[in-house]
Amino acid sequence: MAYRFDPDDVRYLTGPAGADALAVAQALPLTEDSLLADLGRVRAVAATRAGAVVETVRLRRRAVGKLGPAAAGWLFTDEALQQATPEPVARHRARRLAGLGVHDLTCSIGADLAALAAGAARGGPVTVGSDLDPVRVLMARHNVAAVGLPPRVLVADALTRTTRGLLGYADPARRDGGRRITSTSTVPAVDELDAAHADRPPVLRVPPGLDYDALARPGEVELVSLDGVAREAVLWPPELAGPARRATVLSSTVLSSTVLSSAGDGWTVTSDEPDDVPVGPIGEFLIDPDPAVVRAHLVRQYAARHGLGQLDPHLAYLTGPAVPAGVRGFRILDRAPYAEKTVARWIRRDGVGTLEIKQRGTPIVPDELRRRLRSALTGPTREAATLVVARVGRRAEAFWCRATQPSPAGGPAGGP
C-alpha cells in the first residue's frame, strides 16, 4: 500500500532535517529485498517520518524517467506520479500555450504547471496553479520552486473562479468504472468545467478514449501519443483551435522527418489535409498507424501524405511499398483466407518459436488463438513472426509477416 502523506510530512521533507534524511535514504538501495533494513537506517535519522522519506526517494527514482532529471528533487504521492503527464507531452502542450497567462485548475503536484510556468520565468504572462488537495498544493509549490519558477499555487476547487484574465487549463481525473468514456466520465465533468468558465472556455486534457465526437464543444481535438502509446486528448477552445482534429506523435528519442509538420519533438497530421486514398492493392508492407492517428480518425489523411492505400475502408491498417519513418510495419511474406490450419503450416514451415498476433474487424482473441497454436511453435524463440488477421471485404484474411522496426528520418523502415 502506498504511503499517505500529510501536510506535516511535506513540511518536514522541505526543511533541513528532511533534507538530511533524504540524503541518507538516497544512498540506500531501497529494493524489495533491502527495504526492511534500509527503513531501519532511515528511522535512525527521521524517526516517525522515515516512511515519508523512503517513499519520496523511491518515487523520485521512478519519476526521473517520466518527468526528466528535474524531478529528482521533487515531491510526489504515488497516485500523483502515476497520473502526471510525461515531460515531452507537457512540454508540447506548454509550447502551444506560450505567451498566454494560464491558470492550471487541477495542478496536482505541479508537473504540468512547471512546464506552463517556464514561459512566465522568461518574462511571459503569469501562471497560477490550484488544487483541492492541500498536500498536493504544498508539493506543487516545492516542485515549481525547485526548477526556479515562482510558486503561485492555491488551494481551490476547479469549479470556483479564483483568478481573472487567465486562460483555464484542467486535467480532470477519470471516474472509476465503465468502458465507454463520455463527458461525464471525469471529475469534474467536462460540462461542469465549461459551465464554470463559460466566459473563456478552458483547455481540457481528457483520456484519449473519450468519445469526443459526442461532445457539443467547438474548437479542436488533439490526440497525443508518446513512443507509440496514446497519452491524452486535448480539447482546445476556439481561441486556440486550428483544424477540427489533429494527431500529434511525440518520441522521447526525437524521431523527426522533414516531410512532416513540425510538433517540436515529433510530427502532426490534421483533418485539413487531403484524404483521397485508394483501397488496395496490397503492397509489400502492412502499416499500423500510430494510435494518435487512429483515435483522431486521421488514417486517410496519414495515408494520403505517404502515398499508401487502405487495406479496407473500415480498417486502420494501410498498405504500400515502404513503411513511413517512425512507425511500425509488417513485411508480408504470405497471404491467404484465414484458417488455423494455414497458420500452423506457416509456423512449421518457417520454424517459428515466437508469434505475435494482431487482428482488426474479426472475433479472434489473440491469446486464445496463440494457445491453440502452441503445439506448432517448436522453433527457437528468436525466430519470430507476426500474424495479422483482418476483415477485408466480407472475409477474414490472414497475413503472415515479419515486423519491421521504426526507422529515423531519411528512409523507409526495413528488416526485422
TrEMBL record:
Gene3D superfamilies, A to Z: Vaccinia Virus protein VP39
Protein's UniProt name: THUMP-like domain-containing protein
Source domain of life: Bacteria
Domain THUMP-like: 327-402
Native source organism of the sequence: Nakamurella multipartita (strain ATCC 700099 / DSM 44233 / CIP 104796 / JCM 9543 / NBRC 105858 / Y-104) (Microsphaera multipartita)
Pfam families from the UniProt entry: Thump_like (PF18096)
PANTHER family found in the cross-reference section: S-ADENOSYLMETHIONINE-DEPENDENT METHYLTRANSFERASE RELATED, TRIMETHYLGUANOSINE SYNTHASE
SUPFAM superfamilies in the record: S-adenosyl-L-methionine-dependent methyltransferases (SSF53335)
